[in-house]
Specification:
Blueprint: H1 13-17, E1 25-29, H2 33-40, E2 45-48, H3 52-55, H4 67-78, E3 85-89, H5 99-113, E4 117-119, H6 127-135, E5 140-145, H7 151-154, H8 165-179, E6 183-187, H9 191-200, E7 205-208, E8 216-219, H10 221-224, H11 242-258, H12 265-268
Parallel strand pairs: 1-2, 1-8, 2-3, 3-4, 4-5, 5-6, 6-7, 7-8
Helix pairs in contact: 4-5, 5-6, 6-8, 8-9
The structure holds 3-methyl-2-oxobutanoic acid.
């Protein structure tokens, strides 16, 4: 599958990297073709996040997401993108054991979806893996701070890097950049730490609850559209309330059906001639 659509050329990981310190990088998640088409109208980068497990599949966390799920959703998203750079998450247990395991998973994602890069979670302990992938032709986006795949060792979806713990997260981000990551996601860290890491790193930081100094921002699209009600991170601004709009539409439909106000075939199919 080609990473280039018929309609245009997608931004590349190198072009995203070159935006360091420049125009902020706009990023949203997408998991399906129609939503990818919408995100593509304004985004520089679209992430097929493993948040798909919670948002679309009703899982309690991201740990049950499989490589097959990521590939299926990745293929769907690729059909909807013409301009945005496409990154797919490596799911839990598909890459942590060794650089070789990570290469096997990432190679499948790249070959079977048309993604231009993969994202993986973890800091200094993943640097060797990042270098292994990058030197073998697979661009990597890092992810430090709150890493949801580690929710059980972190003890919840809490702010990371307060006080002295910030030094470790800064070192994690640095190690990923030195290993060749083209960008690093900073999730749920104090604004001051987000700024410090952004100023120190030679590659863009993409923040999610990490303050305004980051080189870009990513949000889960269903969160910012008001479609995902199960869990609402405090840092998410809702730009629409599509969940409420959809509930009102379903209620209006149910009322009409109960009142037997179905459209009459003679009226609907009038331009097709006689109905039977
Ligand atoms: O899975 C995901 O959607 C993510 C982003 C929120 C950064 O990793």
């Amino acid at each position: 599958m080609s990473a280039q659509s018929e309609a245009g050329r997608r931004l590349t990981p190198s072009e995203i990297r070159a935006r360091k310190g420049g125009q902020p990088i706009v990023c949203l998640t997408a998991y399906t073709t129609p939503v990818a088409r919408i995100a593509d109208t304004a985004c520089d980068l679209v992430l097929v996040g493993d948040s798909v497990g919670m948002v679309l599949h009703g899982l309690p966390d991201t740990l049950g997401v499989t490589l097959e799920m990521m590939i299926l959703h990745g293929r769907a998203v690729a059909r909807g993108l013409a301009r945005a750079c496409m990154v797919v998450d490596l799911p839990f247990a598909s890459y942590e054991a060794s650089p070789q395991q990570a290469f096997a998973a990432a190679a499948r994602v790249m070959a079977e979806t048309g993604a231009q890069a993969v994202k993986l979670e973890g800091g200094q302990h993943m640097a060797e893996t990042v270098a292994f992938l990058v030197t073998r032709g697979i661009p990597v986006m890092g992810h430090v701070g709150l890493t949801p795949q580690a929710v059980n060792t972190l003890g919840g979806y809490k702010v990371q890097g307060r006080g002295a713990a910030g030094e470790r997260i800064a070192a994690d981000a640095r190690a990923l950049a030195e290993a060749g990551a083209f960008a690093v996601v900073l999730e749920k860290v104090p604004e001051g730490l987000g700024r410090r890491i952004t100023e120190a790193l030679p590659v863009p930081t993409i923040g999610i609850g990490a303050g305004a100094a980051c080189d870009g921002q990513v949000l889960v699209i269903d969160d910012m559209l008001g479609l995902f009600a199960a869990f609402r991170p405090k840092f998410v601004k809702r730009y629409a309330e599509l969940g409420r709009t959809a509930e009102a539409a379903v209620a209006a439909y149910a009322e009409e059906v109960r009142a037997r106000r179905f459209p009459a075939p003679e009226h609907v199919f009038a331009d097709e001639g006689e109905t039977k």
